[in-house]
Amino acid sequence: MRCQFPLVVTVLLWQSAIADAQPRFSFFEPVTPPRAIQVMVHRGMMCAAPENSAAAIEMCAHDYCEWVEIDVRLTKDGKHVVIHDDMVDSTTDGTGRVENLTLEELKKFDAGSWFAPRFTGIHILTLNEALMVAKGKVNLYLDCKQINPEQLVAEILDAGMQTQVVVYSSPDILMKVKAASKGAVAGMTKYRPTMPFDSFVSDVSPAAVEIDADDVTKKLCEKFHAAGIKVQAKVLGEKWDNPEVWRNVIEAGVDWLQTDHPAGIMFLNARLRSGGVLPVKIACHRGANRYAPENTIPAIREAVSLGADFIEIDIQTTQDNQTVLMHDGTVNRTTNGSGRVRDLTFESVSHLSAGSWFGKPFAQVRVPSFDEGLKAYGPQTGAYLDAKNIEPEALLKTIHQWGFQGRHVVFQSRQYCEQLRQLDPTVRTLPPLKSMEQLEAVAAIKPFGVDAAWSILSKEMISECHRRGIQVFSDALGKNETIEQYTLAINWGIDCIQTDYPLRVLRAMELSRR
Fold it and tell me: Which residues pair with 451 in a beta bridge?
Protein backbone atom coordinates (compact mmCIF):
# COMPACT_ATOMS: atom_id res chain seq x y z
CA MET A 1 0.00 0.00 0.00
CA ARG A 2 1.38 3.42 -1.04
CA CYS A 3 2.09 5.82 1.85
CA GLN A 4 -0.20 8.89 1.85
CA PHE A 5 1.90 10.92 4.30
CA PRO A 6 3.64 13.17 1.72
CA LEU A 7 0.30 14.06 0.18
CA VAL A 8 -1.16 14.91 3.60
CA VAL A 9 1.85 17.09 4.41
CA THR A 10 1.53 18.87 1.07
CA VAL A 11 -2.15 19.61 1.62
CA LEU A 12 -1.54 20.87 5.16
CA LEU A 13 1.32 23.07 4.00
CA TRP A 14 -0.86 24.47 1.20
CA GLN A 15 -3.70 25.22 3.65
CA SER A 16 -1.25 26.78 6.08
CA ALA A 17 0.20 28.95 3.33
CA ILE A 18 -3.28 30.21 2.47
CA ALA A 19 -4.09 30.94 6.10
CA ASP A 20 -0.77 32.67 6.76
CA ALA A 21 -0.43 34.54 3.46
CA GLN A 22 -0.18 38.28 3.91
CA PRO A 23 -1.76 40.58 1.31
CA ARG A 24 0.67 42.41 -0.90
CA PHE A 25 -1.13 45.64 -0.14
CA SER A 26 -3.12 46.88 2.85
CA PHE A 27 -6.13 48.97 1.88
CA PHE A 28 -8.03 51.46 3.99
CA GLU A 29 -11.22 49.98 5.46
CA PRO A 30 -14.08 52.48 5.09
CA VAL A 31 -16.44 50.14 6.95
CA THR A 32 -15.22 48.93 10.33
CA PRO A 33 -15.16 46.26 11.48
CA PRO A 34 -14.59 45.26 7.85
CA ARG A 35 -16.71 42.74 5.98
CA ALA A 36 -15.15 39.63 4.48
CA ILE A 37 -16.96 40.36 1.18
CA GLN A 38 -16.87 43.90 -0.18
CA VAL A 39 -18.70 45.56 -3.07
CA MET A 40 -17.32 47.79 -5.84
CA VAL A 41 -20.18 49.92 -7.12
CA HIS A 42 -19.94 50.42 -10.88
CA ARG A 43 -19.62 54.16 -11.67
CA GLY A 44 -21.15 54.93 -8.29
CA MET A 45 -24.85 54.63 -7.45
CA MET A 46 -25.80 55.42 -11.03
CA CYS A 47 -29.38 54.17 -10.67
CA ALA A 48 -30.05 57.23 -8.51
CA ALA A 49 -27.47 59.84 -9.58
CA PRO A 50 -25.44 60.66 -12.70
CA GLU A 51 -22.70 58.09 -13.22
CA ASN A 52 -19.19 59.05 -12.05
CA SER A 53 -20.57 62.10 -10.22
CA ALA A 54 -19.88 63.29 -6.69
CA ALA A 55 -23.48 62.42 -5.76
CA ALA A 56 -23.09 58.87 -7.08
CA ILE A 57 -19.88 58.42 -5.07
CA GLU A 58 -21.31 59.95 -1.89
CA MET A 59 -24.40 57.72 -2.01
CA CYS A 60 -22.11 54.68 -1.86
CA ALA A 61 -20.34 56.03 1.21
CA HIS A 62 -23.67 56.81 2.90
CA ASP A 63 -24.81 53.24 2.21
CA TYR A 64 -21.68 51.70 3.75
CA CYS A 65 -20.31 50.39 0.47
CA GLU A 66 -16.55 49.90 0.48
CA TRP A 67 -15.57 50.70 -3.12
CA VAL A 68 -16.65 52.81 -6.08
CA GLU A 69 -15.47 52.14 -9.63
CA ILE A 70 -14.87 55.35 -11.60
CA ASP A 71 -13.40 55.95 -15.07
CA VAL A 72 -10.42 58.21 -15.73
CA ARG A 73 -9.46 59.97 -18.99
CA LEU A 74 -7.11 62.72 -20.14
CA THR A 75 -8.29 66.05 -21.55
CA LYS A 76 -6.70 67.86 -24.47
CA ASP A 77 -4.56 69.85 -22.04
CA GLY A 78 -3.44 66.77 -20.11
CA LYS A 79 -5.79 66.86 -17.09
CA HIS A 80 -7.36 63.75 -15.60
CA VAL A 81 -11.17 63.81 -15.53
CA VAL A 82 -13.75 61.24 -14.45
CA ILE A 83 -15.93 60.10 -17.36
CA HIS A 84 -16.61 56.69 -18.90
CA ASP A 85 -17.27 57.37 -22.59
CA ASP A 86 -14.67 58.87 -24.90
CA MET A 87 -17.42 61.29 -26.03
CA VAL A 88 -19.22 63.71 -23.72
CA ASP A 89 -22.48 63.63 -25.69
CA SER A 90 -24.41 61.02 -23.66
CA THR A 91 -23.67 62.37 -20.17
CA THR A 92 -23.49 66.16 -20.63
CA ASP A 93 -25.20 68.87 -22.65
CA GLY A 94 -22.01 69.25 -24.68
CA THR A 95 -20.52 67.42 -27.63
CA GLY A 96 -17.10 66.16 -28.67
CA ARG A 97 -14.32 63.81 -27.65
CA VAL A 98 -12.81 64.21 -24.21
CA GLU A 99 -9.28 64.14 -25.62
CA ASN A 100 -10.13 67.03 -27.97
CA LEU A 101 -11.50 69.30 -25.22
CA THR A 102 -9.68 71.26 -22.55
CA LEU A 103 -10.60 71.03 -18.89
CA GLU A 104 -11.95 74.58 -19.04
CA GLU A 105 -14.21 73.63 -21.94
CA LEU A 106 -15.41 70.46 -20.19
CA LYS A 107 -16.24 72.34 -17.00
CA LYS A 108 -18.71 74.51 -18.91
CA PHE A 109 -20.88 71.50 -19.69
CA ASP A 110 -23.85 70.55 -17.52
CA ALA A 111 -23.28 66.93 -16.47
CA GLY A 112 -26.46 66.47 -14.46
CA SER A 113 -29.58 67.62 -16.29
CA TRP A 114 -29.36 64.73 -18.78
CA PHE A 115 -30.11 62.42 -15.84
CA ALA A 116 -32.74 64.42 -13.95
CA PRO A 117 -33.63 68.09 -13.39
CA ARG A 118 -32.62 67.84 -9.72
CA PHE A 119 -28.97 67.41 -10.80
CA THR A 120 -28.88 70.40 -13.14
CA GLY A 121 -25.65 72.36 -12.87
CA ILE A 122 -23.22 69.67 -11.74
CA HIS A 123 -20.01 69.28 -13.73
CA ILE A 124 -17.59 66.55 -14.74
CA LEU A 125 -15.22 65.80 -11.87
CA THR A 126 -11.48 66.09 -12.10
CA LEU A 127 -9.63 63.11 -10.64
CA ASN A 128 -8.48 65.28 -7.75
CA GLU A 129 -12.05 66.32 -7.00
CA ALA A 130 -13.15 62.68 -6.99
CA LEU A 131 -10.31 61.77 -4.64
CA MET A 132 -11.38 64.50 -2.24
CA VAL A 133 -15.02 63.39 -2.33
CA ALA A 134 -13.98 59.84 -1.42
CA LYS A 135 -11.18 60.57 1.05
CA GLY A 136 -11.74 58.86 4.37
CA LYS A 137 -15.20 57.65 3.24
CA VAL A 138 -15.00 55.13 0.41
CA ASN A 139 -12.25 53.52 -1.69
CA LEU A 140 -11.88 54.06 -5.43
CA TYR A 141 -11.24 51.60 -8.23
CA LEU A 142 -9.71 53.78 -10.97
CA ASP A 143 -10.54 52.29 -14.37
CA CYS A 144 -7.85 53.95 -16.44
CA LYS A 145 -9.23 54.51 -19.92
CA GLN A 146 -6.50 56.96 -20.93
CA ILE A 147 -3.99 58.26 -18.38
CA ASN A 148 -0.53 59.64 -17.74
CA PRO A 149 0.84 57.10 -15.20
CA GLU A 150 3.35 59.42 -13.55
CA GLN A 151 0.82 62.25 -13.27
CA LEU A 152 -1.84 59.86 -11.94
CA VAL A 153 0.51 58.66 -9.22
CA ALA A 154 1.42 62.24 -8.27
CA GLU A 155 -2.26 63.18 -7.90
CA ILE A 156 -2.97 60.11 -5.75
CA LEU A 157 0.03 60.70 -3.49
CA ASP A 158 -0.59 64.45 -3.20
CA ALA A 159 -4.15 63.66 -2.07
CA GLY A 160 -2.89 61.14 0.49
CA MET A 161 -5.12 58.50 -1.13
CA GLN A 162 -2.58 55.75 -1.79
CA THR A 163 -4.30 53.28 0.54
CA GLN A 164 -7.74 54.16 -0.84
CA VAL A 165 -7.28 53.43 -4.53
CA VAL A 166 -6.54 50.51 -6.79
CA VAL A 167 -5.45 51.38 -10.33
CA TYR A 168 -6.94 49.12 -13.00
CA SER A 169 -5.10 48.99 -16.31
CA SER A 170 -2.96 46.86 -18.59
CA PRO A 171 0.19 45.24 -17.16
CA ASP A 172 2.52 47.68 -18.95
CA ILE A 173 0.70 50.70 -17.46
CA LEU A 174 0.73 49.08 -14.01
CA MET A 175 4.50 48.68 -14.26
CA LYS A 176 4.82 52.43 -14.81
CA VAL A 177 2.45 53.15 -11.91
CA LYS A 178 4.46 50.86 -9.64
CA ALA A 179 7.75 52.47 -10.66
CA ALA A 180 6.46 56.03 -10.28
CA SER A 181 4.96 55.32 -6.85
CA LYS A 182 7.77 53.03 -5.69
CA GLY A 183 5.13 50.43 -4.93
CA ALA A 184 2.96 52.78 -2.84
CA VAL A 185 -0.03 52.67 -5.24
CA ALA A 186 -1.79 49.35 -5.78
CA GLY A 187 -2.47 47.94 -9.23
CA MET A 188 -5.10 45.55 -10.59
CA THR A 189 -5.50 43.95 -14.02
CA LYS A 190 -7.58 41.29 -15.73
CA TYR A 191 -6.72 37.62 -15.26
CA ARG A 192 -8.05 34.85 -17.48
CA PRO A 193 -7.57 31.12 -16.80
CA THR A 194 -5.74 30.73 -20.12
CA MET A 195 -2.89 32.84 -18.73
CA PRO A 196 0.05 30.99 -17.11
CA PHE A 197 -0.48 31.62 -13.39
CA ASP A 198 3.10 31.63 -12.10
CA SER A 199 4.52 33.94 -14.75
CA PHE A 200 1.49 36.24 -14.43
CA VAL A 201 2.03 36.61 -10.69
CA SER A 202 5.80 37.08 -10.96
CA ASP A 203 5.82 39.35 -14.01
CA VAL A 204 2.77 41.55 -13.33
CA SER A 205 2.89 41.38 -9.52
CA PRO A 206 -0.53 42.97 -8.98
CA ALA A 207 -2.11 43.78 -5.63
CA ALA A 208 -5.43 42.51 -7.00
CA VAL A 209 -6.87 40.78 -10.04
CA GLU A 210 -10.19 41.11 -11.81
CA ILE A 211 -11.76 37.84 -12.98
CA ASP A 212 -14.95 37.54 -15.00
CA ALA A 213 -17.71 35.80 -13.04
CA ASP A 214 -17.77 32.76 -15.33
CA ASP A 215 -14.06 32.18 -14.73
CA VAL A 216 -14.07 32.42 -10.92
CA THR A 217 -13.31 29.15 -9.11
CA LYS A 218 -12.48 28.32 -5.52
CA LYS A 219 -9.12 26.88 -6.54
CA LEU A 220 -8.17 30.04 -8.42
CA CYS A 221 -9.16 32.25 -5.46
CA GLU A 222 -7.08 30.10 -3.13
CA LYS A 223 -4.03 30.34 -5.40
CA PHE A 224 -4.22 34.13 -5.61
CA HIS A 225 -4.82 34.45 -1.87
CA ALA A 226 -1.80 32.25 -1.21
CA ALA A 227 0.19 34.76 -3.25
CA GLY A 228 -1.26 37.65 -1.21
CA ILE A 229 -3.40 38.94 -4.09
CA LYS A 230 -6.99 40.14 -3.74
CA VAL A 231 -9.62 38.74 -6.12
CA GLN A 232 -12.36 40.89 -7.61
CA ALA A 233 -15.21 39.16 -9.47
CA LYS A 234 -16.70 41.17 -12.30
CA VAL A 235 -20.44 40.47 -12.10
CA LEU A 236 -21.76 43.22 -14.35
CA GLY A 237 -24.61 42.68 -16.78
CA GLU A 238 -27.89 40.77 -16.61
CA LYS A 239 -26.14 37.43 -17.12
CA TRP A 240 -23.92 37.84 -14.04
CA ASP A 241 -25.41 40.54 -11.79
CA ASN A 242 -27.94 38.29 -10.09
CA PRO A 243 -28.24 36.31 -6.81
CA GLU A 244 -27.24 32.95 -8.30
CA VAL A 245 -23.93 34.28 -9.62
CA TRP A 246 -23.30 36.39 -6.51
CA ARG A 247 -23.71 33.31 -4.36
CA ASN A 248 -21.36 31.27 -6.56
CA VAL A 249 -18.50 33.77 -6.51
CA ILE A 250 -18.95 34.51 -2.80
CA GLU A 251 -18.75 30.80 -2.01
CA ALA A 252 -15.69 30.53 -4.27
CA GLY A 253 -13.93 32.99 -1.95
CA VAL A 254 -13.63 36.30 -3.82
CA ASP A 255 -12.84 39.48 -1.89
CA TRP A 256 -14.66 42.07 -3.98
CA LEU A 257 -17.60 42.09 -6.41
CA GLN A 258 -17.96 44.81 -9.04
CA THR A 259 -21.70 45.35 -9.44
CA ASP A 260 -24.60 47.61 -10.34
CA HIS A 261 -26.63 46.09 -7.47
CA PRO A 262 -24.62 46.53 -4.26
CA ALA A 263 -27.62 46.36 -1.93
CA GLY A 264 -28.69 42.97 -3.26
CA ILE A 265 -25.21 41.53 -2.78
CA MET A 266 -24.84 42.92 0.73
CA PHE A 267 -28.17 41.52 1.90
CA LEU A 268 -27.47 38.14 0.28
CA ASN A 269 -24.06 37.92 1.94
CA ALA A 270 -25.53 38.90 5.32
CA ARG A 271 -28.10 36.11 5.03
CA LEU A 272 -25.46 33.58 3.95
CA ARG A 273 -23.36 34.47 6.99
CA SER A 274 -26.30 34.42 9.41
CA GLY A 275 -27.90 31.18 8.24
CA GLY A 276 -30.72 33.10 6.60
CA VAL A 277 -32.07 34.70 9.78
CA LEU A 278 -31.60 38.44 10.41
CA PRO A 279 -32.32 39.95 13.86
CA VAL A 280 -35.02 42.40 12.73
CA LYS A 281 -37.52 42.70 9.89
CA ILE A 282 -37.13 45.51 7.36
CA ALA A 283 -39.93 47.43 5.66
CA CYS A 284 -38.77 49.45 2.65
CA HIS A 285 -40.55 52.80 2.74
CA ARG A 286 -42.49 53.42 -0.50
CA GLY A 287 -40.49 50.58 -1.97
CA ALA A 288 -36.71 50.82 -2.24
CA ASN A 289 -37.14 54.54 -2.84
CA ARG A 290 -33.41 55.27 -2.56
CA TYR A 291 -32.71 53.28 -5.71
CA ALA A 292 -35.90 53.77 -7.73
CA PRO A 293 -38.80 56.26 -7.75
CA GLU A 294 -41.12 55.83 -4.78
CA ASN A 295 -44.35 53.83 -5.04
CA THR A 296 -43.46 52.41 -8.47
CA ILE A 297 -43.02 48.88 -9.79
CA PRO A 298 -39.19 49.25 -10.03
CA ALA A 299 -39.07 50.39 -6.38
CA ILE A 300 -41.14 47.39 -5.31
CA ARG A 301 -39.07 44.95 -7.37
CA GLU A 302 -35.84 46.36 -6.02
CA ALA A 303 -37.10 45.91 -2.46
CA VAL A 304 -38.13 42.34 -3.30
CA SER A 305 -34.63 41.67 -4.66
CA LEU A 306 -33.14 42.83 -1.35
CA GLY A 307 -35.29 40.32 0.48
CA ALA A 308 -37.27 43.01 2.33
CA ASP A 309 -39.74 41.51 4.80
CA PHE A 310 -42.32 44.21 4.06
CA ILE A 311 -42.68 46.83 1.36
CA GLU A 312 -44.62 49.92 2.38
CA ILE A 313 -46.86 51.48 -0.29
CA ASP A 314 -49.44 54.29 -0.20
CA ILE A 315 -52.90 53.83 -1.69
CA GLN A 316 -55.06 56.58 -3.13
CA THR A 317 -58.44 56.45 -4.88
CA THR A 318 -59.12 58.27 -8.16
CA GLN A 319 -62.24 60.15 -9.22
CA ASP A 320 -63.69 56.97 -10.80
CA ASN A 321 -63.06 54.82 -7.69
CA GLN A 322 -59.93 53.08 -8.97
CA THR A 323 -56.87 52.71 -6.73
CA VAL A 324 -53.30 53.79 -7.47
CA LEU A 325 -50.01 53.97 -5.59
CA MET A 326 -49.23 57.54 -4.58
CA HIS A 327 -48.10 59.07 -1.30
CA ASP A 328 -49.24 62.64 -1.77
CA GLY A 329 -52.84 63.71 -2.28
CA THR A 330 -51.69 65.37 -5.52
CA VAL A 331 -49.61 64.03 -8.41
CA ASN A 332 -47.51 67.23 -8.57
CA ARG A 333 -44.34 66.13 -6.75
CA THR A 334 -43.68 62.69 -8.23
CA THR A 335 -45.12 62.87 -11.75
CA ASN A 336 -45.15 65.12 -14.80
CA GLY A 337 -48.80 65.99 -14.12
CA SER A 338 -50.72 68.15 -11.68
CA GLY A 339 -53.92 67.97 -9.67
CA ARG A 340 -55.47 66.03 -6.81
CA VAL A 341 -55.64 62.27 -7.26
CA ARG A 342 -59.29 62.21 -6.17
CA ASP A 343 -60.13 64.72 -8.94
CA LEU A 344 -58.39 62.76 -11.73
CA THR A 345 -59.51 59.66 -13.58
CA PHE A 346 -57.58 56.43 -13.30
CA GLU A 347 -56.70 56.57 -17.00
CA SER A 348 -55.22 60.05 -16.73
CA VAL A 349 -53.17 59.19 -13.61
CA SER A 350 -51.91 55.87 -14.96
CA HIS A 351 -50.50 57.58 -18.06
CA LEU A 352 -48.34 59.99 -16.06
CA SER A 353 -44.58 59.44 -15.79
CA ALA A 354 -43.74 58.55 -12.20
CA GLY A 355 -40.01 58.24 -12.78
CA SER A 356 -38.67 61.07 -14.94
CA TRP A 357 -38.25 63.32 -11.88
CA PHE A 358 -36.04 60.66 -10.28
CA GLY A 359 -33.77 59.78 -13.18
CA LYS A 360 -33.45 59.04 -16.88
CA PRO A 361 -33.44 55.22 -16.40
CA PHE A 362 -37.00 55.51 -15.05
CA ALA A 363 -38.46 58.02 -17.52
CA GLN A 364 -40.95 55.48 -18.91
CA VAL A 365 -42.17 54.28 -15.50
CA ARG A 366 -45.88 55.00 -14.95
CA VAL A 367 -48.08 55.37 -11.86
CA PRO A 368 -49.11 51.80 -10.99
CA SER A 369 -52.49 50.58 -9.88
CA PHE A 370 -52.84 48.95 -6.47
CA ASP A 371 -53.30 45.59 -8.24
CA GLU A 372 -50.13 46.05 -10.30
CA GLY A 373 -48.23 46.92 -7.15
CA LEU A 374 -49.30 43.78 -5.29
CA LYS A 375 -48.53 41.62 -8.32
CA ALA A 376 -44.92 42.88 -8.23
CA TYR A 377 -44.47 41.59 -4.65
CA GLY A 378 -44.20 37.99 -5.80
CA PRO A 379 -45.14 35.03 -3.60
CA GLN A 380 -43.35 35.85 -0.33
CA THR A 381 -42.81 39.53 0.46
CA GLY A 382 -45.13 41.16 2.99
CA ALA A 383 -47.26 44.19 2.09
CA TYR A 384 -47.24 47.19 4.43
CA LEU A 385 -50.36 49.02 3.24
CA ASP A 386 -50.70 52.69 4.10
CA ALA A 387 -54.41 53.24 3.41
CA LYS A 388 -54.16 56.94 2.56
CA ASN A 389 -57.50 57.13 0.75
CA ILE A 390 -59.28 53.83 0.15
CA GLU A 391 -62.56 52.47 1.50
CA PRO A 392 -62.10 49.62 4.00
CA GLU A 393 -64.26 47.27 1.92
CA ALA A 394 -62.21 47.90 -1.21
CA LEU A 395 -58.96 47.36 0.68
CA LEU A 396 -60.08 44.03 2.16
CA LYS A 397 -61.36 42.85 -1.21
CA THR A 398 -57.98 43.49 -2.84
CA ILE A 399 -56.06 41.81 0.01
CA HIS A 400 -58.13 38.66 -0.45
CA GLN A 401 -58.04 38.75 -4.25
CA TRP A 402 -54.23 38.68 -4.24
CA GLY A 403 -53.88 36.17 -1.41
CA PHE A 404 -52.20 38.53 1.04
CA GLN A 405 -54.24 37.48 4.08
CA GLY A 406 -51.21 36.17 6.01
CA ARG A 407 -48.60 38.62 4.78
CA HIS A 408 -49.90 42.12 5.14
CA VAL A 409 -50.30 44.90 7.67
CA VAL A 410 -52.59 47.90 7.29
CA PHE A 411 -51.59 51.29 8.66
CA GLN A 412 -54.25 53.89 9.29
CA SER A 413 -55.98 55.59 12.21
CA ARG A 414 -57.22 53.55 15.16
CA GLN A 415 -60.79 54.22 14.03
CA TYR A 416 -60.10 52.96 10.50
CA CYS A 417 -58.32 49.86 11.86
CA GLU A 418 -61.25 49.16 14.18
CA GLN A 419 -63.65 49.39 11.24
CA LEU A 420 -61.48 46.95 9.28
CA ARG A 421 -61.56 44.41 12.11
CA GLN A 422 -65.33 44.66 12.36
CA LEU A 423 -65.51 43.74 8.67
CA ASP A 424 -62.82 41.04 8.87
CA PRO A 425 -61.41 39.89 12.25
CA THR A 426 -58.40 38.29 10.49
CA VAL A 427 -57.09 41.56 9.05
CA ARG A 428 -53.64 42.53 10.41
CA THR A 429 -53.99 46.12 11.54
CA LEU A 430 -51.19 48.49 12.47
CA PRO A 431 -52.60 51.62 14.14
CA PRO A 432 -50.30 54.44 15.23
CA LEU A 433 -49.04 54.63 18.82
CA LYS A 434 -47.73 58.10 19.67
CA SER A 435 -47.53 57.69 23.44
CA MET A 436 -47.82 54.90 26.00
CA GLU A 437 -50.98 56.55 27.32
CA GLN A 438 -52.67 55.41 24.10
CA LEU A 439 -51.72 51.76 24.51
CA GLU A 440 -54.87 50.68 26.37
CA ALA A 441 -57.16 52.12 23.71
CA VAL A 442 -55.05 50.71 20.89
CA ALA A 443 -54.77 47.27 22.49
CA ALA A 444 -58.56 47.16 22.87
CA ILE A 445 -59.01 46.74 19.10
CA LYS A 446 -56.64 43.74 19.14
CA PRO A 447 -54.18 44.93 16.49
CA PHE A 448 -51.51 42.78 14.88
CA GLY A 449 -48.98 45.46 15.75
CA VAL A 450 -48.48 49.17 16.29
CA ASP A 451 -46.66 51.78 14.28
CA ALA A 452 -44.91 53.36 17.26
CA ALA A 453 -43.38 56.81 17.28
CA TRP A 454 -39.61 56.37 17.39
CA SER A 455 -39.39 58.74 20.36
CA ILE A 456 -41.32 56.38 22.67
CA LEU A 457 -39.31 53.23 21.88
CA SER A 458 -37.56 51.55 24.79
CA LYS A 459 -36.87 48.04 25.97
CA GLU A 460 -39.71 48.32 28.48
CA MET A 461 -42.17 49.70 25.93
CA ILE A 462 -41.43 46.94 23.42
CA SER A 463 -41.62 44.27 26.13
CA GLU A 464 -45.01 45.57 27.26
CA CYS A 465 -46.38 45.43 23.71
CA HIS A 466 -45.03 41.91 23.29
CA ARG A 467 -46.63 40.89 26.58
CA ARG A 468 -49.95 41.94 25.07
CA GLY A 469 -49.27 40.01 21.86
CA ILE A 470 -48.67 43.17 19.85
CA GLN A 471 -45.71 43.53 17.47
CA VAL A 472 -43.80 46.81 17.34
CA PHE A 473 -43.12 48.49 13.99
CA SER A 474 -41.52 51.91 13.79
CA ASP A 475 -39.84 54.17 11.27
CA ALA A 476 -36.72 56.18 11.94
CA LEU A 477 -37.29 58.52 9.02
CA GLY A 478 -35.31 61.74 9.31
CA LYS A 479 -33.00 62.55 12.23
CA ASN A 480 -33.19 59.08 13.77
CA GLU A 481 -32.09 57.29 10.60
CA THR A 482 -28.70 56.39 12.11
CA ILE A 483 -26.73 53.26 12.94
CA GLU A 484 -26.82 54.15 16.63
CA GLN A 485 -30.61 54.50 16.73
CA TYR A 486 -31.16 51.34 14.70
CA THR A 487 -28.82 49.36 16.96
CA LEU A 488 -30.63 50.50 20.09
CA ALA A 489 -34.00 49.46 18.69
CA ILE A 490 -32.68 46.09 17.49
CA ASN A 491 -31.17 45.35 20.90
CA TRP A 492 -34.45 46.33 22.57
CA GLY A 493 -36.29 43.73 20.47
CA ILE A 494 -38.18 45.79 17.89
CA ASP A 495 -39.97 43.62 15.34
CA CYS A 496 -39.73 45.73 12.17
CA ILE A 497 -37.98 48.94 11.12
CA GLN A 498 -39.43 50.95 8.25
CA THR A 499 -36.63 52.75 6.44
CA ASP A 500 -35.44 54.79 3.47
CA TYR A 501 -31.93 53.40 4.06
CA PRO A 502 -32.04 49.60 4.12
CA LEU A 503 -28.25 49.29 3.98
CA ARG A 504 -27.88 51.38 7.13
CA VAL A 505 -30.26 49.03 8.93
CA LEU A 506 -28.26 46.10 7.56
CA ARG A 507 -25.06 47.57 8.98
CA ALA A 508 -26.74 48.02 12.36
CA MET A 509 -27.79 44.37 12.25
CA GLU A 510 -24.21 43.32 11.51
CA LEU A 511 -22.91 45.34 14.43
CA SER A 512 -25.62 44.20 16.82
CA ARG A 513 -24.70 40.59 16.07
CA ARG A 514 -21.10 41.34 17.00
Answer: 432, 473
